[in-house]
Amino acid sequence: MNKELEHNFVELLEKHQNIVHKVCRLYTNNYDAHNDLFQEITIQLWKAYPKFRGDAKFSTWMYRVGLNTAITLYRKSKRTINTQDFDGVAFKIKADYYDDTEEQQLKILYQALHQLNDIEKALVFLYLEDKDYREISETLGISEVNARVKMNRIKTKLKTILNP
């Protein structure tokens, strides 16, 4: 590949890398798995970048490649051993005055999201990223109507999980 293509890719990846980190957070539960998935998604983005035509926004294309990579690896990992919980490994320092309400709410939300199947996770992720149903349907390769129906079912499922 030429240097200009490589430069453009690195620039776009740096600009939008939070997308990849969010996908990794959703599909992994520890630091090492997060880093491995981030690396794998980056490799897949790099391999696919020469074919990126610009029909969709780069970020939309990045969501699609990232989610597809995560889902593929997630399905493969279902056949392997479980890893240690992310929060059990992460070291946190909390000051006495620190209000961790939001952090605890996010932890509960992620625990609920980890109970969803891979496609449901992807749909909720895009929804929480404020993507409209048109962009969600483009990213996941489903119709807008299907995305809306699935989202309504997921909302009901999450309510059941969060309020047993």
Secondary structure topology:
Elements lengths: L2 H25 L3 H18 L9 H20 L8 H4 L11 H13 L4 H11 L4 H8 L3 H19 L2
What does this protein look like?
- By secondary structure, this protein is mainly alpha-helical.
- It is built from 8 helices and no strands.
- The protein is globular.
Percentage of residues in DSSP E strands: under 5%
What is the number of helical segments per DSSP (H or I, 4+ residues)? Answer: 8
Helix-strand pattern, N to C?
Answer: HHHHHHHH
Class from helix and strand fractions: mainly alpha
| Oligomer type | single chain
Q: Report the sheet with the most strands, covering strand number, pairing sense and barrel closure.
A: none
Cα gyration radius (Å): 17 Å
Low-confidence stretches: 88-96
Mean pLDDT: 82
Helix proportion range: over 70%
Instruction: Report the span from N to C terminus.
Output: 53 Å
Estimate the global geometry from the Cα principal axes.
Answer: globular
Number of distinct beta strands: 0
